[in-house]
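new request in #modeling-help
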Amino acid sequence: MIYLDNAATSFPKPSIVAEAVYKQMTEVGGNAGRSSHQGGLQSGRILYETRCAIAELINCKDPLEISFTLNATEGLNTVIQGSISAGDHVVTTSMEHNSVLRPLVEMESRQVTHSIVWGDREGQINPLDMKKAIQPNTRLMIINHCSNVTGTVQPLGELMKIAREHNLLVLLDASQSCGSLPIDVEALQIDFLAAPGHKALLGPQGTGFLYINKKNKIKALKQGGTGSRSEDLHQPKTIPDYYESGTQNIHGLAGLKAGILFVLENGVDHIHAHEKKIMTQLWEGLSVIQGIQLFGPPPDGCRGSVISFRGKNLDVNQMNYALDITCGISARAGLHCAPLAHQTMGTYPEGTIRFSPGPFTTPEEIHLVLAGVNDIMKELG
Amino acid sequence: MIYLDNAATSFPKPSIVAEAVYKQMTEVGGNAGRSSHQGGLQSGRILYETRCAIAELINCKDPLEISFTLNATEGLNTVIQGSISAGDHVVTTSMEHNSVLRPLVEMESRQVTHSIVWGDREGQINPLDMKKAIQPNTRLMIINHCSNVTGTVQPLGELMKIAREHNLLVLLDASQSCGSLPIDVEALQIDFLAAPGHKALLGPQGTGFLYINKKNKIKALKQGGTGSRSEDLHQPKTIPDYYESGTQNIHGLAGLKAGILFVLENGVDHIHAHEKKIMTQLWEGLSVIQGIQLFGPPPDGCRGSVISFRGKNLDVNQMNYALDITCGISARAGLHCAPLAHQTMGTYPEGTIRFSPGPFTTPEEIHLVLAGVNDIMKELG
């Protein structure tokens, strides 16, 4: 099997990830913050060490600004539901995932409106268009750092400058970038960043985090037991307890810690350079196969490890099925939960096939993939 | 180490649980509902099979009525925030966990009020008191099935009858019962049931579920990618997609499936009978140690596997520390995130020490525990 679906979930993970989860599950009995016995304390340490690893990765000064979530979607919902209220307006981009678009549509019922800034055919947002979309009541800007459809990376620095000029809060959706592109929340002065643990951070599914700059107080999505201030019927205001109700995924987070340590040891720059090399091979190889249409930016600039393409006159699902069954290639066809990104590229409603290599993808695998695509195009195209 | 903190998180788990997680993490690349390749399909099957196992356990006819959550707290929040609105009133009990009490206090800001029905000194709710607390605008009854502090089991049948007479929705918090006490949502006509995966279901942390009888349509806590109807900017109404946004904890749920299959194979009745035997040994042994005060109902009736106690004139944290350090016993001291339950018992604000045996606790361990408590009482009491 050749796995090119790292944008859905990374595979394989470094072996230390599953080993760390196994070890935590079989050797440690306890729940973080709930019990002061050895196992409870060790569980608490795992959470703290995972926070520290994330903080190091994104250059956040205080690890307590990191809250754990089930997935990136939960973090995005926390900010969208918790930082704005009736009468507020949000600006965002056409490259967003449904994890941003659907909460925004839902917020219309709470009298929160939004404007969508459309990217060019490669998914790139023009900062001037973003500026024009800002209204007097705009409070929040949501930016998709790296598209899960095209790998397009937005001009963060310029967008942040505009946001600061207009005193907007900024939520960065780093679902497709955290772990494979450098991010510095301090330097960029980002307010909120949501990311999953199971993609480029190479951790288990069921993990994710939300960075909330502590100058921002937003409403938590849930209330419940925190193991702290048990006597208080109000949710404790201390962070990260305020945002973390109920037992956290300590078993999974032990694995996430291992995944992030792998990323830190190898270096984001090194991982990005590897993926860029693979992407260039893939892009160049696909571009010379007759009947293949490529979408999104070419791999020479800064972009994520995602390629969208389709075979002319060929149903994307049929082609994806052939890739899986006849070539053993795992990819994803369709709209990738990002319908407006496909409208931006002109590939709506049929969508594309997406190849998303990861840190373990080899040039030999890409060689086989290109041969497989070539064969399918000859046979079916 | 003798682990008596199963009410915080169960330990050990059956070996198949960590093995199932490890296997899923190392052998299957894919994300359920996101990709149609082999790994994506296998991931989807894991979710469905886990739903089926839960449905069998609680006698729910349609596995799609089961949604996955990060923990029980998320399920409780989903119902509390999503099933009632301004002007509504909720009735609940003094035995609730902060995962019910704190969301209810938060709902006061949305003009939702609540009344707390106090239990007797053993934590038992009198159904007549519950009946008296119902107001014309009462819409939801929340019942703690089994107390995490005293093991008290509420008279579900009688409470359900009252709820039906008053046309109330009923949310059962089965955090301390699901997997160790029989539950039949069909027979009881329960509307909602929330439970964690990492306690008596013997699954990993970061798993939980919410049963929503499909006759009830409530508002989801989050919106986002569901892998379904990608073109629709509104959250799909189909269940369970409507309630499950973003990547689920498939790795963890593979383990939860294994844990529930263990429970089903061994039988809830058998597990309950084992725990009852252990509890009786523990209760009887503690009751003859001088200076030990026991709280909650004696172990002869139907109760959960939790005992609260303290040593006369002895600080509970000091005693718990001695249990951990000198005897290697893992227990939990304090208020157990259930302050009103301690007020009910008369153990507020100092709390108690809680012993919570599990399916793997042996009579030999309890023998050692009793000797340890005896020694500590002699030395410190």
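bot summary: Chain B has a mean pLDDT of 97.
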